[in-house]
Amino acid sequence: MPTRASVLPTVPSRLPRIELTAPGRRAPHALAVAADALDDLALDYRPAEEPTGKAGEVRVIATPAGPNWLVGVGERTPKDWRAAGASLVRAVREHELTTLDLGLPADARAGEIGALTLGLTLGGYRFAVSAEKDAQSPRVIRLRVENPADELRAAAHRAGILAAATALARDLANMPSDVKTPAWLADTAARAAAPLPGLIPTVRDEAWLTEHGFGGVLAVGGGSANPPRLLELAWRPRGATTHLVLVGKGITFDTGGISLKPAAGMHLMRTDMSGGAAVIGALRAVAELGLPVRVTGLVPIAENHVSGSAYRPGDVVRHYGGTTTEVANTDAEGRMVLADALSYAVRRHKPDLLVDVATLTGAMKVSLGVRTGGLFASSGELAAAIGEAGRETGEAWWRMPLTEAYADSVHGDLADLRQYSANNDPGAIFAALFLREFTGGLPWAHLDIAGPARADANYAEVTTGGTGFAARTLVGLAESLVER
Fold first, then answer.
1. Omega of the bond prior to 12 within 30 degrees of 0, cis?
2. Of residues 307 and 54, which shows the higher confidence score?
3. Which entry of 22, 147, 306, 465 is 20 to 30 Å from 9 by CA?
4. Residue 106 half-sphere exposure, CB side, CA atoms within 13 Å?
5. Closest CA to 432 of 375, 366, 349
């Protein structure tokens, strides 16, 4: 009898190929124009509702050759171009076109081409386990612009790689957890990395974790029949001197453990490994771009389950490196696995820069909503670099404080540290301060993506389900480290 995994989608998703070409004789199926250029259009047919050029607005225009789609790009900000591409590809996907020709303004710039490419490739994303045929996005999208210079081609190419990284992160997050065991996630990521020369995957099993003292990962994963893993992805280009280590939370399903979560919404906990998925997607993109920066990705992977072998409130856990933590809430499991991986990164890899990313706290979702990630950083310079990487790639961040007044709260009585505070300490800040204890004083940032890692509805290039949030920011951060 075949396993469930044999009938589920593989990764990465099939995304449309973007081609940048000069205008030909063939009339485009779609025309992107700025709002202030609408009056210059000579249209044989005006739709019933006059087009305004608002970003993402799509109108159908009848022509002798068939219907064309007119899509507005508003004020031509990167956000407008992403929204335009996403709206257009969603509008035409039901027509099952194999090719979409998109005419662009002659003065289209590289940043606009890149933003549009992201919208076109990600806006039509859909993940479903179904026997029914799903309407597919166009397989090829041609962007037609006067004199497509190398700079424009490079922007489209880079945006396509960033989109693929986001889509891979979405696929991994959306995969149901009856398939997505820790072993499946680690092995799938390793297979995704294998075709890329220079990107080296290593998967560590529970025996290795036990031998090397990864007490946090083993405690969290101890209640599941599916044992934990540690995934390591290494990109080591020749001559690279700067070393960036990215650590992503990889909880393949989170029941909360003995501190059980409410039933409502628990089915969404398959996306609790979105931080790890972002790191996996980012490492693939770094390798595809061939960045001359050494980057290591670490993803501690476990399933937080309930059983007779589950870890308990009141337990004391010894992490990699020897630090001990008293457990107060088994649903604060993400920081337990990240603590091991951060300590391992510091002691084993000795990086120049350390960044962790995780769907860590509900408090962050309350603070910033579902479209903005929380950014904690050890320095203003690092915070600015991450913020700029997010703005450039279309992901929003807001810097949060590492309030020193709460720093003593993470120190325990029974153990070195306590993992959770039941007092009035701010939850997201407490969690960040806890993680800081394992960073060895290195330049470090903590990205809490509990809100934007999952979407309940489509908006701009984001689609329902796992969003792949943070993957593009991590790539942008790596690019900023390239010695110029």
1. yes
2. 307
3. 306
4. 4
5. 375
For the record, the structure tokens of 256 come out as 């909360």
Query: Residue 24: what pLDDT?
Result: 67
Closest C-alpha to 409, from 398, 399, 424: 424
Say how far apart CA 344 and CA 101 lie, in whole Å: 49
| Burial (Cβ within 10 Å: 0-12, 13-18, ≥19) of residue 64 | exposed
pTM of the model: 0.93
CB 55 within 8 A of CB 79: yes
pLDDT tens-place string over residues 301-311? 999 999 999 99
- Is residue 217 within 8 Å of 317, Cβ to Cβ? no
Beta bridge partners of 447: 357, 375
Catalytic residues: 261, 335
Residue 474 phi, psi dihedral angles, 5° rounding: -65, -40
Q: Assign 42 a pLDDT band (cuts: 50, 70, 90).
A: very low
In the block, which residue shows the tokens 């480290």? Answer: 481
Sign of CA dihedral 225, 227, 228, 230: negative
Phi-psi region of 147 (alpha: psi -120 to 50; beta: other; left: phi over 0): left
The whole-angstrom distance between residue 102's C-alpha and the CA centroid of its chain comes to 28
